[in-house]
Write a structure and sequence with these properties.
single chain; Rossmann fold; transmembrane transporter activity; nucleotide-binding; ATP-binding
């Protein structure tokens, strides 16, 4: 049996909007195993990004539990949650969120900088990640000097810097043209094998979603396999 990296158990989430709470999830369950490649689709407003935030500990559920390597994120201190995000999880967003004053290489090194000053081995590994995503030749360029696809490749390399067990991706191809989107799709699928980590990809792109071995649709607060 595969080792569970992340689990959601009877997850609920509500927001107070006006006099009545608005429920986003109602008893949602999900297991991510080591090496899984999972896609989640759903209409706008279904709660896909909210689910990713809960999985990352950036937000906490109203009830239920999200566990990472068996630890309940809700029971952790904020410092411990930050540590888990830095050491166990990686993130890629629709908008790359690169730091514009830093080079591509320095952006990839940023997760390590949060913990300590990067050393020569860290820089070598960051360069190997940039090479792996096809932009090593752009290592010393700043984000303003890169194309949209190149920026997203740098963001993907950054998400792998601390050798996470799970990478969470929120619309990783949503801001790209069709050709570049296809290239990023191929990159993501290949990284699942070479990076030896799990991926959860939230996307409107049904072509990308359909290529994942494990597929879910988020509807009415619940995940349904499809």
């Amino acid at each position: 049996m595969s080792e569970s990296v992340l689990s959601c158990r009877e997850l609920t989430k509500s927001y107070q909007i006006g006099p009545e709470p608005v429920w986003v999830f109602d008893g949602l369950n999900l297991d991510i195993q080591a090496g899984d490649m999972v896609s989640i689709v759903g209409t706008s407003g279904a709660g896909k990004s909210t689910l990713l935030h809960l999985m990352a500990g950036l937000d906490l559920p109203s009830s239920g539990a999200v566990t990472v390597d068996g630890e309940d994120l809700s029971r952790m201190s904020e410092r411990r949650r930050s540590q888990v995000r830095n050491e166990t999880l990686g993130f890629v967003f629709q908008f790359h969120h690169l730091l514009h004053e830093f080079t591509a290489l320095d952006n990839v090194l940023m997760p390590t900088r949060i913990r300590r000053k990067p050393n020569a081995q860290d820089r070598d590994y960051a360069l190997s990640l940039l090479e792996g995503v096809g932009v090593a030749h752009r290592a010393e360029h700043k984000p303003s000097e890169l194309s949209g696809g190149e920026r997203q490749r740098v963001a993907i390399a950054r998400s792998l810097m601390n050798r996470p067990r799970l990478v969470l991706m929120d619309e990783p191809t949503g801001n790209l043209d069709t050709q570049t989107s296809g290239q990023i799709q191929e990159l993501i699928l290949g990284l699942n094998k070479t990076a030896q980590c799990s991926f959860v990809v939230v996307t409107h792109n049904h072509d990308l979603a359909a290529r994942m071995p494990v597929r879910y649709r988020l509807e009415q607060g619940r995940l349904e396999a499809y």
